[in-house]
Amino acid sequence: MPLHLLFPLFSSIVFVIGMIYAKNAIARGSSPWTGTFLANFWLAIFWGSFALITGRFLPIAVWWQAALVAGSFVLGQVLTYLAYKHGDVSVATPIFGVKVIMVALMVSAWANEEIPGRVWIGAVLATIGVGFVQSGTRMPTGSAQHNPQKTVLTIVLALGAAICMSLFDVGLQAWVFRQPNPAVLATKFLPTVFVATGLFSCAVLPWADRPSRLAELGTTKPIVIGTLLMAANAMSMSWSLSAYGDATRINIVYALRGLWAVALAWALARFFGGQESHHSARVMLLRLFGAALLTASVLVALMGN
Q1: What would you measure as the largest C-alpha separation in the chain, in angstroms?
Q2: What is the mean pLDDT of residues 6-33?
Q3: pTM of the prediction?
Q4: For 28-47, how does the pLDDT look when each residue is reduced to its tens digit (9 = 90+)?
Q5: Average per-residue pLDDT in the chain?
Q6: Which of 22-31, 123-132, 133-142 has the lowest mean pLDDT?
Q7: Who has greater pLDDT, 45 or 254?
Q8: Spatial contact of 217 and 208, defined as CB atoms under 8 Å apart
Q9: How far apart are CA 79 and CA 158, in angstroms?
Q10: Are 42 and 55 spatial neighbours (Cβ–Cβ below 8 Å)?
Q11: Is residue 223 a contact partner of residue 19, using CB atoms and an 8 Å limit?
């Protein structure tokens, strides 16, 4: 495996653990807007401090590009938290697997980059895996967990988040990696992007929980841990996309979060809480099979490297 693909592998694990913590806080009454604001606050603090310490600032003439990338990130993040608010971790996360196809199509069309056949095969396998995961989401009519409207809403929100995050990924590759000295440019572009996300996220503050409210709900610890992990996930992914490009394969590896989501959500549901603890073994095994196809898609995409 090329070493730069270790970044999305790390992110795929951190994302799921962070979202399990965040969903636990949301299920106990915390607002999803709190998670959005805090995750972007950590990113803005880190990258803003980095820029001040190193003195590396992006020229004003290209701030608009950073602002567009930041806007797509914030919107995708909001939709992600809303998807987890309304649905299971093991349903929403694998849906993000279609991001693999979206990124491949966007890279091919926008960045004018030829995608190898094996990568397309891997992307298709990842999408089929998502389909298998979703085939196990429908609960028997009359059961406490049967809510097709809620499942549809979760899918729509997750797909919207996947589109926004695909635009974020391809924007980083097109406007950073394809320029001379991308690693150097990334150290200027990323601070501008994430300081902008922090500023954009201030718009949700009226709906975010105050510290006293988090303490009252007992959700301070899970929301802080969850958002810090989500920030680490974003830092790792954004750096790999900016410095190394290869958006399609990076997203295929990142799709492994569907596998971790099913395995971890099932194993930890009784500890953290979640509908996964109520599902039958058949449903969760069907989801696990779909997630295994995501794993196979990564192996196919990496063949010949």
Answers
A1: 61
A2: 89
A3: 0.78
A4: 899 988 988 999 999 999 99
A5: 81
A6: 133-142
A7: 45
A8: no
A9: 7
A10: no
A11: no
The number of C-alpha atoms within 13 Å of 78 and in the hemisphere containing its C-beta is 19
Are 224 and 30 contacting, i.e. CB atoms less than 8 angstroms apart?
A: no
Tokens of 196: 């902008």
Q: Are 297 and 120 in contact (CB under 8 A)?
A: no
Whose tokens are 């590396």? That residue is 56
Torsion of CA 129, 2, 103, 174, to 10 degrees: 170
Contact 168, 79 (CB under 8 A): no
Report the C-alpha gap between 22 and 32 in whole angstroms: 8
Contact assessment for residue 297 and residue 252, using Cβ atoms and an 8 Å cutoff: yes
Residue 168, CA atoms < 13 Å, CB-side half-sphere: 26
pLDDT digits (tens, 9 = 90+) for 204-249: 999 999 999 999 999 999 999 999 999 999 999 999 988 888 888 8
Amino acid identity of residue 98, one-letter, is: V
Range of the domain at 189: 3-301
CB 85 within 8 A of CB 26: yes
- Residue for token pair 């049967």: 146
Amino acid sitting at position 66: A
* Distance (Å, whole) CA 123 – CA 213: 43
Q: In Å, what is the CA distance from 78 to each residue of 36, 73, 85, 162?
A: 6, 9, 11, 11
Domain count within the chain: 1
